[in-house]
Amino acid sequence: MQVTPMQFFAAMDGARRGWLRFMPGPQLNKSLFGMLMLIRHTGCKHPEAPGVRISELAGAMHQSVPAVSQKITALERQKLVCRLAHPTDRRVCYIALTEKGRELTRQMMQSFERQVEQILLQLGEEKSEQLIGLLHDLADVLEHVDPIQPLFTEEPKGGETL
What we know:
Layout: H1 5-20, H2 30-45, E1 52-53, H3 54-61, H4 65-77, E2 81-85, E3 93-97, H5 99-123, H6 125-144
Antiparallel strand pairs: 1-3, 2-3
């Protein structure tokens, strides 16, 4: 049986919709959740630093410094992160988790790990290993495939929206 592009799309879309159920609660959208977890993870890699530089976060997230700064401001409002000045270079600013941010990310990681463990348990060891291998293969293929052409070459006519 040959898999069609629509079958592939439907499977990927179903996985995406299912995955969305495992995202953070109402206090954080996916973008802020990702930022918070990146700050946590990057801080663990560099325990000698007082925090993570905004430029490092921007690079890791493939976003502009102003866009990342806006997200940091939103996390600051929730008292999940704080900005720390460099002791000798006023141009450098570090971002660190607050105690509230550390506790929230700890709880989120525990919840996430429990959810993924349930998924893997339901799949079984063999299918889980196959899935991980296939996802790595898919990521490799997607990185090396030529970029797709735009689906639409013309603007919609007469005020139509897609």
